[in-house]
Amino acid sequence: MLPRYLVIIKECVPNLKNHDYGFLAQVLARGINQYFSQIGAKLNLSGMEIVILNFFFDNYQTTVYQTDIEREFNIRSSTATANIRIMVQKELLQQTVDPNDKRRKQLSLTHKSMQLETQLNASKERLEQALLTGMPTSQQQTFLASLELAIKNLHSFNTH
């Protein structure tokens, strides 16, 4: 049986009018979220925890604060606080007082979370391969450039 989001695509894409880009982006995002949720279930992690860990893996040489997570994922402070609290309890993140500003806490990966990096990176690579299957290199480059431009445009649109 096909996942619901694939059924929706199969039923709706041929009937889309006016290039419903928002709908297709939503379907793609749901599929990606579902994939990470499945990976997370095997590792006792939520999809959001995986995404946050990937953010840390990609920014390992940078000092990370809660506000960075809020900004990166466009989430409220309370949502970030709840996710960070759970990740600290699971020993995936640790909080330390910023030596330059005692009011702020730096966030960093623990040994336990660093052990997940290879496995999560492999999962991310499998997802990217699945997304790009059947696309020639030139189409992959166009797809990436289009996604980056759409994200930039949406950011500009949302800040005005």
Automatic annotation (TrEMBL):
Domain HTH marR-type: 18-152
KW Transcription (keyword) present: yes
InterPro entries with a match to the protein in the record: HTH_MarR-typ, WH-like_DNA-bd_sf, WH_DNA-bd_sf
SUPFAM superfamilies the record matches: Winged helix' DNA-binding domain (SSF46785)
Sorted UniProt keywords: DNA-binding, Transcription, Transcription regulation
Domain of life, source organism: Bacteria
GO molecular function: DNA binding; DNA-binding transcription factor activity
PANTHER family documented for this protein: TRANSCRIPTIONAL REGULATOR, MARR, TRANSCRIPTIONAL REPRESSOR OF EMRAB OPERON
Full protein name: MarR family transcriptional regulator
Organism: Levilactobacillus suantsaii
UniProt lineage: Bacteria, Bacillati, Bacillota, Bacilli, Lactobacillales
